[in-house]
Amino acid sequence: xxxxxxxxxxxxxxxxxxxxxxxxxxxxxxxxxxxxxxxxxxxxxxxxxxxxxxxxxxxxxxxxxxxxxxxxxxxxxxxxxxxxxxxxxxxxxxxxxxxxxxxxxxxxxxxxxxxxxxxxxxxxxxxxxxxxxxxxxxxxxxxxxxxxxxxxxxxxxxxxxxxxxxxxxxxxxxxxxxxxxxxxxxxxxxxxxxxxxxxxxxxxxxxx
Length: 208
Ligand SMILES: Nc1nc2c(ncn2[C@@H]2O[C@H](COP(=O)(O)OP(=O)(O)OP(=O)(O)O)[C@@H](O)[C@H]2O)c(=O)[nH]1
Ligand SMILES: [Mg+2]
Prior knowledge:
The protein is built from five helices and seven strands, in the order E-E-H-E-E-H-E-H-E-H-E-H. The chain is α/β, with parallel strands linked by helices. The chain has one domain (10-201): 3-Layer(aba) Sandwich (Rossmann fold). It is globular. The N and C termini lie far apart (36 Å).
């Protein structure tokens, strides 16, 4: 799968933010990755840029800041790693401040072009996932659903799992993607989708 992909995207860390006033000035359209703690957001970003820039951990709650990765491809864009939500083992106040930071980002960030909503394929959309979908819809932010860790489910059950999760309302630009960064499955298809999506965003920007 990796060999079918084009040139590797050059990327670098542009900013690490714990509050809204630390968000960087505009550095192109932003593709943000959101989802419950431990679904594999940071792993997915590393898989897309094909170098381990984002920190990954088997302990949920690893990413606590919003991290902006600048990608030098086409006209330039940004991959944004959001802290995970819904992790019960953190203090309530800490969870609430993360949720507020994520909500501020989603509701006020003008450069946000697409919210990639990652969901563990074993669990499907839980209450917090539905909440995220509602926020995005309220703020007219396009969402693309990606199911992660599909290697944990036998292949023969993928389509029935997918059907059971695809009950409306499900906000997603195209059909949900099924990926496993552990195995490298689905990264190429998602990259192609993202390049097409970004071409449209850049074209719209040029039109003003
Ligand atoms: N089996 C399997 N494990 C995965 C996959 N993707 C990520 N993981 C593992 O899941 C764990 C969590 O991955 P992260 O990328 O840190 O998850 P995250 O969503 O960024 O987590 P937070 O930063 O805590 O919100 C790590 O142990 C990864 O190696 C996958 O596709 N398959
Ligand atoms: Mg992370």
